[in-house]
User: Fold these one by one.
Assistant:
Number 1:
Amino acid sequence: MALADLAGKDRQNSFDEHVAADGKVEPKDWMPAAYRKTLVRQISQHAHSEVIGMQPEGNWISRAPSLRRKAILLAKVQDEAGHGLYLYSAAETLGVTRHEMEADLMSGKAKYSSIFNYPTLTWADVGCIGWLVDGAAIINQIPLCRCSYGPYARAMVRICKEESFHQRQGFELMMALAKGTASQKAMAQDALNRWWWPAVMMFGPPDGDSVHSSQNMAWKIKRFSNDELRQKFIDMTVKQCEALGLDIPDPDLKFNAATGHCDIGPIDWDEFWAVVKGHGPCNRQRLEQRNRAHDEGAWVREAATAFAAKERDRQQQRAA
Ligand code: BYC
């Protein structure tokens, strides 16, 4: 029997059993209100991160050091716009409109990833975003391909494929700098020094402070905890750093033979929460830029609406 045909407690139990058995939930299925709400929250935040995430890298498109690098960066930034669109579409299947989500982003009510509130000061920052930020995103997002909500899981499959290209181009860029002249290597090291800790924080608060984790893991929206994914990222990146010949800016970083993982020094959670609450180095600039881009795009929306109205009229005339 379909979930929608069941009543009250039976419906809730069937939903729980369906999700526990790795079944997918689709837009027209019955779902608990809190499941819908947390998905709208997470998917819209994710979409906003992709859209705001275009700014730090977009800042370097006109200053890329070669035609090849410029073409790669342009393609990457356009991919991020596409990711935002797939994710807004996935969130819309839950009953929220894109207009509502955009309004919440532009007013500062909605969250987006903390990482995009840091500045891109040099060309090496573009490499660090691809290598570290997209690298962290892949680790976080591969499990989301198995998320219990079908439209989100399916959007993530394509996004992860593109993120994989993004990570590789970032690593390749960092390799070119790290194996280049002394000043290029110094630029790469300086960027790593500034991006390492924000990238480690991207995975969210420690498990003990993560308010949504336990319920969202039970609902199979999240498959791993914030700390589990963070550790995976650290272990993977330490090895990549060795290949680059760069140093992670953490004097406490060491391999722990007992656990088989790398231990790190303390994370500055005060900095993380300050950035999340709007007080990072670029929060204001990011929102101002998003609002400006929205205003400057008004003529495109007006033209598209006028064209759609004309098409509707033409179709009605043809049908009459
Ligand atoms: N930044 O209970 P928790 C990209 C908030 S884009 C800001 O652990 P949850 C890319 C959290 O929202 C990458 N806020 O939450 C694009 C919650 O506040 P609310 C974006 C954060 O949901 C362009 C509170 O802290 N990826 O890849 O269980 C170029 C408590 O947290 C952050 C995604 O969005 C943060 N870092 O876990 C390059 C992935 N962390 O909502 C790359 C999808 C936590 O109660 N999202 N908060 O007000 C997720 O996987 C999860 O939502 C998170 C957080 C792991 C981020």
Number 2:
Amino acid sequence: MNIEVWQGDITELAVDVIVNAANETLLGGGGVDGAIHRAAGPGLLRECEQLPELRPGVRCPTGEVRATGGHDLPARHVFHTVGPVWRDGRHDEAALLANCYWQSLRLAEQMGLESIAFPAISCGVYGYPLHQAAVIAATETMTWQKSHARPSRIVLVAYNAAAFKIYQQALANAGPAP
Ligand code: AR6
């Protein structure tokens, strides 16, 4: 298994694709979304604006993913995915969050990409409990790697030391028994 945990700012990573925790408009916001747009420059917003709206204000429904270029980022591409807003855990939150990871990995494979980095989707403004989200991130990425050659490098980005520990624990628990 080759899932890495890396602590820091995802906009600094020179991988094939970084994943953005966006909202359904894909027109930017705060948190990691704001950081990615700032680092990518205005070309990213212009490209997002060109993506088709499925209905007014919705370019990407929750659980799905859309690809753009990386513009001024060291990453070549950005995948914009929309995580669920945490309510009480009984509104399909886990399945929707799992879809964000799985659909991103599938798109990376389709595009022939080798390396992908994920932030803790939904774990900021959207309120998903990090411990639970980390289990989903670990499970989805490890399950993917068991049956797919690409992307060969998967990075889970922790924004602080506490998140780093939580991710490491989740990966250890999700791994095969010794
Ligand atoms: N690098 C890596 N991780 C980061 C960074 C960064 N530069 N900045 C924040 N995080 P959030 P969400 C972590 O709120 O919960 C936006 O306004 C952060 O510590 O960015 O999915 C969108 O437009 C947290 O663990 O995303 C949506 O409206 C994680 O990234 C909404 O927020 C995700 O926090 C999406 O909310």
